[in-house]
């Protein structure tokens, strides 16, 4: 398989994974929460990584290059990257169709593999099964975030069909890791004071939906990076959309129990029914459903199996939250 920016590629075994002799990557939005996790894993896997962004966030990974550009401006990507090519481009910052259209113009012929980070919010918030949710499940039709990501996916699907842009879409659900607070399936959602609220033992500020019986399948941000490093350059991933979730699906109550266990306190909560939650906050419908995902397509086509345990992901995130609290004091 030959392509621009890749010196040599050889197929390894029957998993569909490819080893690349030349590995340079660009991560758009790589200074953000998810982007930082992806950058860390690509660097650990031996990639020469550059980050593209507006310059308003500090890079947290050493030895990484930087390209300054505001990709929300039409033509900014192509202008900033003129004359450059990459084996891998990871786009964490495309939210609407024009963003994807700019990426297609910038990377057709100059990227060996383009990976778009979408979201599980593309799925219909009222979805009631069957479970786990496959990539072909009914989609969001109203909320701007989910429909914007779907519009980007549609642009990339056309680019693959018409121009063979080697693009892959990943749909991560609730993302954990250093850089973002924990909290999901509750009235409070992500909560900077979650550990304080768990330690106070009243449950007053930890209000779970439907007594914590909603299902959730979180993913560590570095798991997304590990997945990308595994599938990069694999032509079996080109033109595909994959759910990208962690290996464990638990109730949201169990999610909060693991957090409480990590800090050594019993879990105390209150509850609100989903109907009451949606009556008050209808715009949050995507948070008030089961988020259990089928990752078999990813495994079958690329050989990648999710590997980061929930307890380890929560431990990493709790450690970051504790450190952030100390630094803010």
Name the descriptors.
seven-stranded parallel beta sheet, 329 residues, single chain, alpha/beta, 15 strands, 10 helices, two-stranded antiparallel ribbon, globular
Task: Give the helices and strands, then pairings.
Elements (H helix, E strand, L loop, with lengths): L8 E3 L6 E3 L3 E5 L4 H12 L3 E6 L11 E4 L7 H5 L7 E4 L5 H11 L6 E4 L26 H20 L3 E5 L3 E2 L17 H7 L6 E3 L5 E2 L2 E2 H11 L8 E4 L6 E2 H12 L6 E3 L1 H7 L15 H7 L7 H19 L1
Parallel strand pairs: 3-4, 3-6, 4-5, 6-7, 7-8, 8-13, 9-12, 10-15
Antiparallel strand pairs: 1-2, 11-14
Helix pairs in contact: 1-6, 3-4, 7-10
Structural class by secondary-structure content: alpha/beta
**Rough shape?**
globular
Number of helices: 10
The overall average pLDDT, rounded, is 93
CATH class membership of the largest domain: Alpha Beta
CATH architecture of the largest domain: 3-Layer(aba) Sandwich
Total domain count: 2
Secondary structure: helix percent = 25-40%
Radius of gyration: 20 Å
CATH superfamily caption of the largest domain: NAD(P)-binding Rossmann-like Domain
Order of helices and strands: EEEHEEHEHEHEEHEEEHEEHEHHH
* Low-confidence sequence ranges: 1-21
Query: What's the CATH topology name of the largest domain?
Result: Rossmann fold
| Number of separate strands | 15
Distance between the termini: 54 Å
Walkthrough of the structure:
This protein is α/β, with parallel strands linked by helices. It has two domains: 19-176 and 218-247 and 296-302, NAD(P)-binding Rossmann-like Domain (Rossmann fold, 3-Layer(aba) Sandwich); 194-216 and 249-289 and 311-328. It has ten helices and 15 strands. It has helices at residues 33-44, 76-80, 97-107, 144-163, 194-200, 221-231, 252-263, 274-280, 296-302, 310-328, and strands at 9-11, 18-20, 24-28, 48-53, 65-68, 88-91, 114-117, 167-171, 175-176, 207-209, 215-216, 219-220, 240-243, 250-251, 270-272. The strands form five sheets. Strands 5-4-3-6-7-8-13 form a seven-stranded parallel β-sheet, sandwiched between helices. α1 (33-44) crosses α6 (221-231), α3 (97-107) runs parallel beside α4 (144-163) and α7 (252-263) packs across α10. The chain is globular and about 60 Å long. The relative contact order is 0.15. Residues 1-21 have low confidence and may be disordered.
